[in-house]
Amino acid sequence: MIPQARLEIQKERVVCHTRVQRNVNLEKLQNGYLFPEISMHELQHIRKYPDAKLINLGIGDTTEPIPDIVAVSMAEYAHALSTVEGYRGYGAEQGNKALRKAIAETLYKDVQVKDSEVFVSDGSQCDITRLQYCTCSDNGIKTAEIVMENFMTQAYIDTSVIIGQAGDFEEKSGKFGNIEYMNCGPQNNFFPDLAKTRRTDIIFFCSPNNPTVYVTDDSPRSIFEIPGAKEAVCSVVNYYKENAKILLETLASLGLKVYGGENAPYVWVHFPGSKSWDVFDYILEKTHIITVPGSGFGPGGEEFLRMSTFGHRETILEASKRLKNLFS
Amino acid sequence: MIPQARLEIQKERVVCHTRVQRNVNLEKLQNGYLFPEISMHELQHIRKYPDAKLINLGIGDTTEPIPDIVAVSMAEYAHALSTVEGYRGYGAEQGNKALRKAIAETLYKDVQVKDSEVFVSDGSQCDITRLQYCTCSDNGIKTAEIVMENFMTQAYIDTSVIIGQAGDFEEKSGKFGNIEYMNCGPQNNFFPDLAKTRRTDIIFFCSPNNPTVYVTDDSPRSIFEIPGAKEAVCSVVNYYKENAKILLETLASLGLKVYGGENAPYVWVHFPGSKSWDVFDYILEKTHIITVPGSGFGPGGEEFLRMSTFGHRETILEASKRLKNLFS
């Protein structure tokens, strides 16, 4: 029943077929990852309107220069690598010792985590995949049941699919059969009621939540705990915060229900009764603005759009103007 | 039949047991990764001889400063991030465009690879794991058969074990049941005879081979293809090459059969009839020199030791002196 994977290399008219079979779970992935899908819509739009001035409030990439103090520090480290005293070979496996100590003492002081228990990794997405492999195996026994919030960054769902823990995708509900979804929405401040959740082996939380950036309590530890960091980074953060305020007020003034945007670089806009890809296409067609359809984050995001507020000020002001023209 | 995985958190006398089962394949891993194992031997040695002047020819970490031209370039890029013109957000998914173009034109010119076909990843080890997931799945069907050289970097074997493709470890042969091993040794210039190899789905090559650094042909493309790079990097490379020459000549003068070391930062020393961990322990005990037991690279490395020639010149000279005293 497993289709033979085919690799066709069409060079000098030589066509090669491999007999190596593909992981059957790859076929269950839904439309690839969200952002490549958005890029395809963007490309089609550019072909249709080659002269349009496109505004991208999609993936949420930063635009403002980082503070001098950070850049200078990185540059000094790079320079030192060309000196006998400053040269370093392989980094420490678990991360720079001084950094691990600072993390333990600054971020985890209250819970008495030791520096030897801190691990500096190359990114949470890779690590979540790797952690999942610790509980699953290829022996056909489903060893892990998974619960997720009903919208969150899609990458974590994809890894569950690839390792065969997600089950089959059900078109109608937009859900995978072996994943429990916890309801998150404005009604519960975007945090699920765990008392109502069935007991499973793994629970995925995304806190602060992407896309809404709601947090599970009001005191997330961050870079701002480090003395001096607040001052250095503050002007950049305030710049983006002002962007968010502009966009949030614009959308609210148009009668739209908006979440996030207050201590967050995203706004999460509700379009009751609409499908999010439809709203995405409508806004792109009418205003040349790229956003992110909420359904890309899971079934709970179906009536929402995410808009990034990273960007130069004039871009955010122009986007606000176009949205005002469209919706008022 | 699967043992219940147990996670015990002993804090304030609260002991937690999780009902989440561990991936059964993790139990099949052999002694963890080679270098942590060596570190344990090193630690025991330091406890036994706290005043010994240890020399590390083990993991092979570089010691000499990198050329100015490289450090300055990195420092300039870091500095630019604090300017409006130089700031960059997310990098391009498939890698920096100019870099991909340069790689295609410089390294793959002869085989007409386009820049769009080049992918700059975060390291070959992660990628090999990910590629393996494309061909295996958890449905109990063994979809990939694997062939490996009979010694190579151990990490690739471990990933095969974790995803359940390696089968069970056989103590006596030092081999995994589902892996075919190709014989590599001095008799075939460390490259296997593919005509004698059974047809399988995946073949792992390590070329230039680590540890012997033998290559599959005599013209590997490298950083030296880039105009100017040769001059800039040459003095550092020549420094290590001279190290290798010193160590190689020392060992050869003692009547030992030595491979590699000519265009390579490692020497691969043959101790016929000996077990490599025994030779490792003997040399450590008598000379306080850390090396790498060849069996850590697979069953074909059993009678060999790898010695790194990265290091300050005086370290290599001192190591040569100690080895001469021991073996002459």
TrEMBL record, chains A, B:
<dbReference type="Pfam" id="PF00155">
    <property type="entry name" value="Aminotran_1_2"/>
</dbReference>
<keyword id="KW-0663">Pyridoxal phosphate</keyword>
<dbReference type="InterPro" id="IPR015421">
    <property type="entry name" value="PyrdxlP-dep_Trfase_major"/>
</dbReference>
<dbReference type="InterPro" id="IPR015424">
    <property type="entry name" value="PyrdxlP-dep_Trfase"/>
</dbReference>
<protein>
    <recommendedName>
        <fullName>Aminotransferase class I/classII large domain-containing protein</fullName>
    </recommendedName>
</protein>
<feature type="domain" description="Aminotransferase class I/classII large">
    <location>
        <begin position="237"/>
        <end position="322"/>
    </location>
</feature>
<dbReference type="InterPro" id="IPR015422">
    <property type="entry name" value="PyrdxlP-dep_Trfase_small"/>
</dbReference>
<dbReference type="GO" id="GO:0008483">
    <property type="term" value="F:transaminase activity"/>
</dbReference>
<dbReference type="GO" id="GO:0030170">
    <property type="term" value="F:pyridoxal phosphate binding"/>
</dbReference>
<dbReference type="InterPro" id="IPR004839">
    <property type="entry name" value="Aminotransferase_I/II_large"/>
</dbReference>
<keyword id="KW-0808">Transferase</keyword>
<dbReference type="InterPro" id="IPR019942">
    <property type="entry name" value="DapL/ALD1"/>
</dbReference>
<feature type="domain" description="Aminotransferase class I/classII large">
    <location>
        <begin position="53"/>
        <end position="212"/>
    </location>
</feature>
<keyword id="KW-0032">Aminotransferase</keyword>
